[in-house]
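Query structure, 458 tokens:
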């Protein structure tokens, strides 16, 4: 197979847009059935705020600032779920502004939590602490950040990789704050008014604890708008090196911190990419939604016979091809295609192409459960087509990073796709995000990434 790289049209990524617009792309290349309004973003895993500023009843401005819940609406807080939706609020006393820390009380006035207030968001408050005696101050953030750092140290994966998620928002007790580490560069993403308020404090603490050469802020995902926050894409501390690289299990990937997707790289798929390497030997591989070539490079190093990689982003594909060279992998086994996957899968089917291993790692189709139905159509469509492209005995590695699609529902969608494709398949692996993306037990929304490896009958 020849190495063919389609370059992007010369439009550079506009930082404020973060990811490319998947909807526009599908429209331009012909709209496939069932994916009309699928969200394009994969870079905002936990920011599932519904649209529109809520109406929040206010009490006396002279009273002590406090969020008072409606009777019976304290239940989720008692289970330690950290979000307070506008509909649960009886009234807000005092005259707090966005980002303020307020006590949350039940209808009887009993203390429940300290939370960051955001009147512009449907998630009107996010809990910092359940302890009444806690002070939400610099020391509090130092403790939480240090705790996240030591939890990552215990994972010991720095032996294998210099990239990791250092802070995973709600699941690390820091709602709205994501920090990814790429060697000595930290990339921070802020998705809540509370984290926004403490941005500089957190940056100072991270500088002190991690001593990076740069802390870069990529707070430019669309979901910031839903929180009433402005988009920001700036150096916070230090200087951004020209060439940021993540080394993962010995493979080197360029990370485009300033204009790439998300914080520049998808660290959550690290372990799943490593698994792909073990499955790829002598196989014809199709990697859909390949971004900068993560799964493709692992498959090539694992001895794949050929790897066809597809993505709608020309910029991502340019980096993917660079990454191939960077790692000295055999270019003659790699083919890169800039295309809409929904369309490309149909074309491959019509051409009678067949593969032994297919990877589907699409962007987030359903940010919330409200989008689940439309998203389900999109997932079913690509999985059905993929099943049809597999040779007997072939493997499908299929993922969903939609917070609005549960693991159970995802499995049902994939089962429906196999049925309609007329194949029998068995689940070989249930997959999740790597361990540096922990999931707080009381916050199931943190388990956004789910995957299945399926083997179709021989
Ligand atoms: N598997 C990748 C991450 C994939 S992120 C890794 O391991 O790094 C999702 C990718 O889907 C993004 O690169 C985005 O550009 C691409 N994308 C979004 N919609 C698409 C579409 N309709 N067709 C092709 N690619 C699409």
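Result returned for the query:
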């Amino acid at each position: 197979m020849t190495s063919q790289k389609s370059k992007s049209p010369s439009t550079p990524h506009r930082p404020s847009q973060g990811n490319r617009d998947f909807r526009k792309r599908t429209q331009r290349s012909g709209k496939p059935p069932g994916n009309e309004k699928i969200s394009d973003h994969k870079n905002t895993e936990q920011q599932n705020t519904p649209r529109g500023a809520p109406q929040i009843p206010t009490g006396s401005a002279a009273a002590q600032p406090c969020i008072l819940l409606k009777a019976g609406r304290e239940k989720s807080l008692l289970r330690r779920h950290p979000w307070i939706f506008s509909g649960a609020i009886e009234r807000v006393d005092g005259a707090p502004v966005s980002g303020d820390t307020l006590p949350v009380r039940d209808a009887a006035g009993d203390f429940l939590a300290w939370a960051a207030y955001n009147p512009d968001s449907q998630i009107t408050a996010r809990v910092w602490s359940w302890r009444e005696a806690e002070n939400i101050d610099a020391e509090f953030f130092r403790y939480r950040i240090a705790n996240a750092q030591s939890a990552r140290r215990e994972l010991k994966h720095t032996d294998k990789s210099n990239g990791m998620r250092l802070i995973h928002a709600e699941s690390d007790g820091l709602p709205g704050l994501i920090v990814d580490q790429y060697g000595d560069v930290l990339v921070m993403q802020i998705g809540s008014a509370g984290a926004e308020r403490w941005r500089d404090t957190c940056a100072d603490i991270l500088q002190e604890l991690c001593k990076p050469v740069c802390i870069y802020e990529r707070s430019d995902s669309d979901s910031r708008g839903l929180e009433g926050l402005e988009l920001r894409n700036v150096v916070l501390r230090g200087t951004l090196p020209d060439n940021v690289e993540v080394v993962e299990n010995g493979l080197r990937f360029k990370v485009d911190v300033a204009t790439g997707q998300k914080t520049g790289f998808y660290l959550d798929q690290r372990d799943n990419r490593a698994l792909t390497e073990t499955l790829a030997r002598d196989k014809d591989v199709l990697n859909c939604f390949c971004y900068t070539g993560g799964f493709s490079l692992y498959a090539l190093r694992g001895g794949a016979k050929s790897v066809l990689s597809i993505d709608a982003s020309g910029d991502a594909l340019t980096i993917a091809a660079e990454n191939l060279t960077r790692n000295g992998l055999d270019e003659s086994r790699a083919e890169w295609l800039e295309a809409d996957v929904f369309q490309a899968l149909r074309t491959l089917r019509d051409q009678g192409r067949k593969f032994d291993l297919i990877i589907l790692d699409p962007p987030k189709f359903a940010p919330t459960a409200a989008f689940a139905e439309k998203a389900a159509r999109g997932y079913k469509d690509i999985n059905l087509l993929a099943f049809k492209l597999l040779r007997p005995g072939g493997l499908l590695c299929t993922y969903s990073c939609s917070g609005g699609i549960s693991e159970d529902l995802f499995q049902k969608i994939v089962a429906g796709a196999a049925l309609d494709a007329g194949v029998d398949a068995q689940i070989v692996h249930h997959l999740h995000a790597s361990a540096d993306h922990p999931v707080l037990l009381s916050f199931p929304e943190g388990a956004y990434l789910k995957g299945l490896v399926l083997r179709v009958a021989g």
